[in-house]
Design brief:
This protein is of the alpha+beta class. The protein has helices spanning 37-46, 72-80, and strands at residues 49-51, 57-59. A two-stranded antiparallel sheet has the order 1-2. The longest helix is centred in the middle third of the chain and has 10 residues, at 37-46.
């Protein structure tokens, strides 16, 4: 193997975290949003985007755990809606 040399090439730091993640690399969303129940599974499986009550558009990638922070605008809108469920839409 005469004449063969090895070298280590360096790459610039590249941030590959999804948008909305913090600097620690934790990809947990900063807050969760209310979306139509019938759209959650489709988004999680197909990667389609959902529209939250507050107007935020995103693919579903996580499910909230008890005590997770909730978007205050979504919560305000949700609490102002008449009870009766999602209506299957």
């Amino acid at each position: 193997m005469d004449g063969v040399s090895t070298a280590t090439k360096t790459r610039p730091d590249v941030d590959t975290r999804p948008e909305g993640t913090d600097q620690t690399g934790d990809d947990t969303p900063k807050m969760f949003h209310y979306v139509r129940k019938s759209k959650i599974a489709e988004s999680a499986v197909m990667g389609t985007h959902v529209v939250a009550l507050c107007g935020e558009v995103f693919p579903v990638t996580r499910s909230p755990k008890p005590g997770s922070p909730v978007c205050p605008e979504c919560k305000r809108i949700y609490e102002s809606l008449p009870s009766g469920g999602d209506g299957g839409e």
